[in-house]
Amino acid sequence: MYYLAEILPGVRRLRIPLSRDQVMLLMTAFNEYMLAVEIYLAHSISGTIVPYEWIPIIFGPIAGTILILAGLLALRNRPLAMWLAIPTFLSSIVVGLLGAYFHISRALLVFAPAGQRTSISLTIWAPPILAPLTFALVGVLGLSAIWVESPVDSGALILFGGRRLQLPYSKSHGYFLWVSMAMLATLISSVLDHARTNFSNPWLWVPTAAGILGVVVSLGIGLIDKPNRGDIWVYFVSMVVIIVVAVTGSVLHILSNLTVENTIVGERFIRGAPILAPLLYADIAGLGLAVLLDPDETPRAREYLKP
Amino acid sequence: MTEKKSNSVWGASRLLVVALLVIIVVLGLALVVQAIGNAGKPSEVGRVNALANSRDACVECHRQATPGIVDQYGHSSMAGADVICGDCHEVASGYPGSEDHEGANILKSPTTAMCQKCHQQEVAQFAHSRHGIPAYVAFAGSKDLSPELMAQFEAVPEGNFDPNKARNAIFALEGPEITRFACESCHSIGKPAADGSVGQCQKCHLRHEFSLEQARKPETCNNCHIGPDHPQWEIYQESAHGIAYATLGYTWNWDAEPGTLTPNDFPAATCAICHMSGFGGTATTHDVGDRLTWFLAAQVSTRRPAWQDNMVRMQSVCLECHNKEFIDDFYAAADRGVEAVNARVQEADQIIQPLKDQGLLTAAPFDEPIDFIYFENWHHWGRTAKFGMWMQGADYTQWHGAYEMLSDLADLRKLTKEKLQAAEQVQVPAIPPTPTTTP
CB contact, 8 Å: A122 with chain B? Predict the structure, then answer.
């Protein structure tokens, strides 16, 4: 279903140069780059980046570049592009899980007395335990987007050699559910970060509420078999609201890092409120809006779909 | 039938997906609620002994040999971050200054080269500061420095200013039995190690808890910055900043993230806030001279290289609480105060100049009362007066500084006059002047 056209029929007349899956794949490449930048800043906090902290920083640009090359290659040779992209996405999942392990292990004092080995406070003050999973989520998104669904909204993915993989949900519903999980990871990261400040600033409740809204709405629409126009409107407006909250949050983070003289001090931006972190909400909500685009990939994949 | 079975499998897998998603969402939201409930509480690393059940060989043995150290380290943030004993103490075989220890090759006291493995920027800034090699040269002199260390010394503003002033004369006179517990105790903060690295981070970051709060509190600086020659601790206690610390410091945010400090965390200045912490428009530094405009410790104070830049950094700290006019007025007044003290110190030089001209002072240092009075005039009272001005310790500027200088200048005049008269009387019989130097 072309969800966006259901609520804004005029968009059918627009000629969008990219298909929904192409938008998703482009976003994965963009995210690989941006994650590397965000992680570089985050890992700079301690002043020295130790060897394994370089893994995601180096991996991000490499993966992003490969995915862009694969995207260009897909215009002529889709299977070959897929063979390039699939290992990249799988690697992204591995890097994400590995990072999550490293971060979670910092919230565990394995040799501490029983009962004191982990706690919510340790989780709050440890490196963000779910942040590395964004790499894994990007990998999952890429793997979801790369396969053509035929017929549209059937949940049947066409694999190499024409083999079919039937999924319990359609691709659109899968995307919605992916958005809800990514939104949940962002919400938890945001709350854990803001918990360090005791939520002393009342504005910090806004991203918390926005995150819960995003999780519930995207999960809900993902589980509704045939969402009606009202459901789609609620989802659409929620995603737009989250983007507004995210951009506002980023501006507020910048303001919080400026001094009374509005001086830009590098370490305040690195160790203070992370300016890119709120934009993760915008990123996920942007992907959430992309789900509403026309899901029909078949015009661009005729060669691939040939029996 | 087949269609029905397919639908059944389809429905079951959907249910499984829904169940998993609901579990994840409920658990995730529960974590959110828990995190909000625990918001603002400090990290528990420090209250929990991270090494309580460690099977690390060093920990197991030292739990018996030096249990205090193991317990302290178990409560440190470094232990919480999985930094083990060997990361700081263990080095390759043959490493300068290392020794064999229970099958491992270790440094008893890790050098800054070891700290630098993780804290590169901090060590580099420290090495470029007064706390680096100039602190060591102050008592040991520079003649035994290797060319590399000499170059490093000269690169530090204090090294350029005062390459070899021989203030270490007292060190030589007192002898190692005393100086081991005196000069060296503080000035070894900049002592070179066998591996060529300089300094001792542990002078301020006390072993083995390495507590942020401990390093930030002014009592840490009090270890050395105390006493008649540099009574910064006493002056701070007298100042409004020190009073705020003494009365309300227990409410301050001592564990705040470095580089993000604001007046909300520290409503008044501490030693670290002014000289080291990232505060206002100034970034964190371990170069304690990075924000200073004068060589206040010098006999006759002069401006530091690039003092205008340093002043901007220091004033950015001040501006978090004080207005620009107040700060400018204060700086202008304190600058004039420094010049006034300089004039008093130079007056002492003028007073004793005739003795120098006539060879009436002994060549040996600190062998007659006038040497001590002359020295104390600038080294104790002159410095104290200047420090008192900049740190708002009125009593130290007045009674422990300027007043003592007046007194010493009077004494110097008296002693000089007596020496000159004595010399004249000796010269009356028209015999060659008697050497006035003592053996």
Answer: yes
Q: Select from B32, B258, B259 the Cβ nearest to the Cβ of A188.
A: B32
Rounded to whole angstroms, the Cα distance separating B193 from A2 reads: 71
Question: From the list B31, B44, B120, which residue is nearest A47 (CB)?
Answer: B120
- Decide if A46 touches B, using CB distance below 8 A: yes
pTM of this structure: 0.85
Q: Which of B35, B49, B319 is facing A261, going by the closest CB pair? A: B319
Provide block-wise average pLDDT over 10 residues at a time, chain B (439 residues). Answer: 48 80 92 85 76 94 95 93 94 96 95 94 94 91 89 86 65 91 94 95 95 96 95 97 97 91 94 95 94 94 95 95 96 98 96 94 92 95 97 97 97 95 71 44
Spatial distance between the Cα atoms of B281 and B309, rounded to a whole number of angstroms? 12
Q: Kindly report, residue by residue over A228-278, the tens digit of the pLDDT.
A: 999 999 999 999 999 999 999 999 999 988 887 778 888 888 888 899 999
Among A127, A210, A215, A223, which residue's Cα sits nearest to residue A172?
A223
Phi, psi of B303 (to 5 degrees): -70, 145
Q: How far is CA B348 from CA B168, B340, B341, in A?
A: 21, 13, 11
Which domain does A175 fall in, by range?
A: 3-304
- Which residues of chain A are within 8 Å of residue B316 when distances are taken between CB atoms? 259, 261, 263
Say if CB B360 and CB B433 are below 8 A apart: no
Give B-chain residues touching A105 at CB under 8 angstroms: 82
User: Comparing C-alpha atoms, which of B422, B177, B130 is closest to residue B291?
Assistant: B130
Cβ pair B40:A197 closer than 8 A: yes
Measure in Å the smallest separation between the Cα of A122 and chain B Cα atoms.
6
| Amino acid type, B333 | A
Phi, psi angles (nearest 5°) of residue B65: -75, -45
Tell me how far apart the alpha carbons of residues A20 and A26 are, in angstroms, rounded to a whole number: 10
Q: Which two tokens stand for residue B363?
A: 């060549």
For A10-35, what is each residue's pLDDT tens digit?
988 888 888 899 999 999 999 999 99
**Are B73 and B46 contacting, i.e. CB atoms less than 8 angstroms apart?**
no
Total length of chain B: 439
Q: How far apart are CA B51 and CA A171, in angstroms?
A: 49
Query: Which has the closest alpha carbon to B201: B286, B268, B260?
Result: B286
User: Average of pLDDT values for A111-116?
Assistant: 88
Question: So what's the ipTM on this one?
Answer: 0.84
Report chain B residues whose CB lies below 8 A from the CB of A116.
44, 48, 52
- Which of 231-270 (A) contact B at CB < 8 A? 259-261, 263, 265-268, 270
Cα radius of gyration (chain A): 20
The total number of structural domains in chain A stands at: 1
Nearest chain A Cα to B81, which residue? A106
Decide if A41 touches B, using CB distance below 8 A: no
